Each structure stands twice: as structure tokens, then as C-alpha cells.
């Protein structure tokens, strides 16, 4: 890297906005990128308050307060209704949106499928998707954008592990394509979630997004109904969909209906492919930009047998730290929103009932009073006392507490496995003039893609 200034040698970070801005400018910046709409002081703040004529939001950035919201009193800080507003047409009553008893029941049915022992069952499907991705990358020549490959690969993982079908299956492909256009049609999503606008403010692209949501749900309903029939006929494969659809809630004795399962499949696909793809793209760029780290990952990958097994993942200790460090610097979900269900007092401030509570994996992961050299890419930090402490207090890319990401364990298998398979096959380099610029819409993407150049390893 050749640039001068305080960021020299550091991985890219979005510019912060000036300290004082009008609401109008803030909203404009926000629509473009929720990260560069924030002031620099958030990287050192414990709490911040946004007060406008329309809303009151509190960004909570102090580990003890984050723990209160996520771990200790999650029922007092439910998912914000504002998030549901934008996502309901696509996700219905999915576990991502529900609260209270419905959410508890759904987690009781879903969680067992993602537990350690059963995660092992998904490994062959993940491996197959990884090997296919390596083959596709091998067909690239010259400089190319790796983000579409990462999305394709992550979507392949979801379809193979959930429904035992590859992304090349016509329905899987159609869902993938519809999601791509849905995401383009839904830019208001984050704005509506973070900035509770009054009802009269026009919501953009609503019609196109609704049409997309209907199309996606129609396709997923077909897959789910087919699976329900196969379960009844005793011919269903033992994948995640079957595991979830045959699990009985130990409390109520109920299973998911086809419709409720469609809601869950929609969120598994949305939450499970875009996030993993984003993380993989950034991890590859970081490895390309830091060749000495790349060589250490490649050396670890070289110890894997030609066809690795689940137990071989224990050989990828450093690769796992690389993936973790990527999630710290580029958490795919940069911010999350909750709603205060009752008045609370945080840091000697009264937070009224109904206020939006914003949690920011992005700012917490780079907090200058918590992490040593917060902007540096240093996977070895997790072996230091500071790194270990911060892993407990200031590392929430998967959220935390009872509402932690269902797929966290799954993603921590998928990410390192894909990195190892790719680095075993290729040496990767950055492309001059193509330094990525992080921008956050649905997830933290690079504004103009993540450009790489590959060479086969001998
Ligand atoms: C690197 C990859 C991933 C990251 C960074 C990530 C991150 C997150 C975060 C931050 C949340 C909490 C959002 C909030 O509370 O507002 C979440 C929730 C969720 N994630 Fe993930 N995720 C990843 C992969 C996956 C995968 C692979 C799956 C499924 C196959 C998945 C399924 C879910 C579900 C179902 C929820 C909702 C949980 C609930 O609200 O109870 N995620 N994820």
C-alpha cells in the first residue's frame, strides 16, 4: 500500500462525516452509506444520542451496556418494529423478526439443527460448494471482482446444506437471481430501520421490492411443500430442512407448518448467504494485501488432506483467527436496532420507552479505548491478553445473548474452510487502483467490488 497519512498501511475504512450536520444532510449521507454518515467520535464514545423532531435513537457502545441489552435483558429490548416494516413482505413471521413467545418457540425448533454435533453433518455439502467455487475461480483470467463469486459460493452452501440441491438447480438459481434484484430494489430498508420516519415520507421502490418478495416466496414455497411431502413419504434427505421440519417443540409439541417454514427458509437464505459472502470477500482482499499473512494461511491449508473431513478443521487455527479478524474489521452486519420496551437509565441518561437502541458491531470492533491498534489487520491479536479480553467484551459480529445468530457456528466452519480451499489452490494479489471502499447498505460491501488477481500455486 502506498498511501500516506494516518491510515497508511491500514485496511480501508470509510470517511467519517463532519461533526455537525443538518438532518437533511445526515439522511442523504445515510442513504448512500450508513457508516460514513457517522462522526469519527463514535469510535471513542460509550454512548451517543440522536435527537431530531422525528425520532430518538441511542447508540450504545460500552461493553457493559451492550451486555445489558443483548445478554441480560433481551426481552426488555425486543427487535424494533421498524425493521419488521421493511422486511415483513419477504420474511413474514421469520425468527429474525418475531419477538416474545413466538420467537422463543421458533428458536427451540431451529437451534438444535445448528448445534455442534449436527453441524458436522453439513460439512460434506459445504465442502462440495467450496470445491466448486475453487473450480469457478480457476476459470477466471486476469483481474476480476471476487464478490459475485463469493455470493454464488455462499448461496450454493445454503442450498446444499438446507435442501440438498446445488445452486445450479433451476429453483435455487431462480431464488438467487430474484434476491439479487430484490436487494437492489430495497435501499430504503436500513433507512426505515434506523431512522423511524413518519408514515408520510415516501418509501422508495416499494412496489418492486414487494413484487420481488412475492416471487421469492413462491419459489421457496414450492421447495418447502415438496420437502413436506417427501418427509411424509419417508424419502427426505437428512439435511437442515428435514432436521428443522421434523423437530417438535419440546414445550408445545408443535412443528413448523409449511408456511412458517417458508418464513424461516427466506431468512436462512437472506441472513446466511449475503453475510458469509461479504466476509469471504473482505477476508480474501486482506490476505491479498498482507502476503505474509496469506502465506501462513496457505501453509496451514497445505496440511489438509486432499478431501478434508470435519475433524480436519482443527488444523485451521490461524485461518480461523484471520476470519475472526475480518469479522472484527468488516462485520457484515454493521449495526443492529432494538427498541426499549420500558424506560431505562443508561449512563445517567433517561432513555424513554419506545426509543431505538442501536448496537454497532462496526464501532465496537474498532473502539479506540478497547482494542490495541484498532484499525490494524492483525490476526495474532487474539493470542494476546487484549485480544482475548476484547473477544469477550467488544466482538459482536454475530450479535450475542439468546438472540445470537443461529448460523454463527455454521459460518465459522464455512469461512475458514473456504479460505483454506482457495488459498491451497491459488496465490492472490490485490489490483493496483482498485482499493476497496467499504459502504454499508444491507451488509458491509465494497463500493466497486473486490478486485483480485490469482495465480495457481504449484
Ligand atoms: C459471517 C456470517 C454471518 C454473520 C456475520 C451473521 C450475523 C448475524 C447477526 C449480527 C445477527 C443478529 C441481527 C440482529 O439481531 O439484528 C444474525 C441473526 C441471524 N442469523 Fe446470522 N450471520 C451470519 C451467517 C448466518 C448463517 C450462515 C445463517 C443460517 C444458515 C444465519 C442465520 C441467522 C438467523 C436465522 C438470525 C436471526 C436470529 C434471531 O433473531 O433469533 N446467519 N446474524
Automatic annotation (TrEMBL):
Where is region (Disordered) located? 1-20
Which Pfam families does this chain map to? p450
Report the InterPro entries cross-referenced here. Cyt_P450, Cyt_P450_E_grp-I, Cyt_P450_sf, Cytochrome_P450_Monoox
Instruction: State the Gene3D superfamilies in the record.
Output: Cytochrome P450 (1.10.630.10)
Gene Ontology molecular function: any one: monooxygenase activity
Q: Which residues cross the membrane?
A: none
Q: Kindly state which keywords UniProt assigns to this record, in alphabetical order.
A: Heme, Iron, Metal-binding, Monooxygenase, Oxidoreductase
Q: Does the record bear Iron in its keywords? A: yes
Name the cofactor(s) required for activity, per the record: heme
Question: Is Metal-binding a UniProt keyword of this protein?
Answer: yes
Which positions does UniProt annotate for heme binding?
405
The record's listing under PANTHER family reads: BIFUNCTIONAL ALBAFLAVENONE MONOOXYGENASE_TERPENE SYNTHASE (PTHR24291:SF50), CYTOCHROME P450 FAMILY 4 (PTHR24291)
Family to which the UniProt record says this protein belongs = Belongs to the cytochrome P450 family.
Name assigned to this protein: Cytochrome P450 family protein
Amino acid at each position: 500500500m502506498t498511501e500516506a497519512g494516518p491510515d497508511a498501511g491500514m485496511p480501508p475504512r470509510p470517511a467519517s462525516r463532519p461533526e455537525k450536520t443538518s438532518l437533511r444532510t445526515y439522511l442523504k449521507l445515510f442513504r448512500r452509506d450508513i457508516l460514513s454518515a457517522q462522526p469519527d467520535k463514535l469510535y471513542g464514545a460509550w454512548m451517543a444520542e440522536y435527537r431530531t423532531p422525528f425520532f430518538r435513537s441511542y447508540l450504545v457502545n460500552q461493553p457493559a451496556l451492550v451486555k445489558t441489552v443483548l445478554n441480560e435483558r433481551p426481552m426488555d429490548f425486543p427487535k424494533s418494529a421498524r425493521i419488521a416494516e421493511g422486511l415483513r413482505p419477504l420474511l413474514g413471521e421469520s425468527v429474525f423478526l418475531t419477538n416474545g413467545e413466538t420467537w422463543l418457540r421458533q428458536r427451540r425448533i431451529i437451534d438444535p439443527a445448528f448445534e455442534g454435533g449436527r453441524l458436522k453433518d453439513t460439512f460434506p455439502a459445504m465442502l462440495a460448494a467450496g470445491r466448486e467455487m475453487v473450480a469457478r475461480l480457476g476459470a477466471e483470467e486476469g483481474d476480476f471482482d471476487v464478490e459475485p463469486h463469493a455470493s454464488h459460493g455462499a448461496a450454493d452452501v445454503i442450498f446444499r446444506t438446507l435442501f440438498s440441491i446445488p445452486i445450479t438447480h433451476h429453483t435455487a438459481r431462480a431464488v438467487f437471481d430474484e434476491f439479487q434484484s430484490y436487494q437492489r430494489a430495497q435501499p430504503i430498508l436500513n433507512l426505515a430501520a434506523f431512522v423511524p420516519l413518519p408514515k408520510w415520507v415516501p418509501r422508495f421502490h416499494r412496489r418492486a421490492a414487494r413484487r420481488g418478495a412475492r416471487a421469492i416466496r413462491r419459489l421457496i414455497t414450492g421447495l418447502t411443500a415438496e420437502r413436506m411431502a417427501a418427509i411424509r413419504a419417508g424419502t427426505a434427505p437428512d439435511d437442515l430442512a428435514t432436521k428443522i421440519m421434523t423437530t417438535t417443540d419440546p414445550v408445545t409439541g408443535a412443528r413448523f407448518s409449511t408456511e412458517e417454514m417458508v418464513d424461516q427458509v427466506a431468512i436462512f437464505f437472506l441472513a446466511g448467504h449475503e453475510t458469509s459472502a461479504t466476509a469471504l470477500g473482505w477476508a480474501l482482499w486482506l490476505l491479498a494485501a498482507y502476503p505474509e499473512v496469506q502465506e501462513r494461511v496457505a501453509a496451514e491449508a497445505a496440511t489438509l488432506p486432499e478431501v478434508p473431513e470435519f475433524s480436519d478443521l482443527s488444523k485451521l487455527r490461524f485461518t480461523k483467527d484471520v476470519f475472526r479478524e475480518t469479522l472484527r474489521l468488516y462485520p457484515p452486519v454493521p449495526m443492529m436496532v432494538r427498541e426499549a420496551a420500558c424506560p431505562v437509565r443508561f449512563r445517567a441518561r433517561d432513555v424513554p420507552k419506545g426509543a431505538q437502541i442501536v448496537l454497532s458491531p462496526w464501532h465496537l470492533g474498532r473502539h479506540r479505548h478497547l482494542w490495541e491498534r484498532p484499525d490494524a489487520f492483525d490476526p495474532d491479536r487474539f493470542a494476546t491478553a487484549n485480544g482475548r479480553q476484547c473477544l469477550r467484551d467488544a466482538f459482536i459480529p454475530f450479535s450475542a445473548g439468546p438472540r445470537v445468530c443461529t448460523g454463527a457456528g455454521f459460518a465459522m466452519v464455512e469461512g475458514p474452510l473456504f479460505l483454506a480451499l482457495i488459498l491451497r489452490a491459488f496465490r492472490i494479489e490485490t489490483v493496483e487502483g482498485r482499493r476497496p471502499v467499504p459502504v454499508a447498505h444491507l451488509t458491509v460491501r465494497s463500493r466497486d467490488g473486490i478486485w483480485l488477481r490469482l495465480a495457481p500455486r504449484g
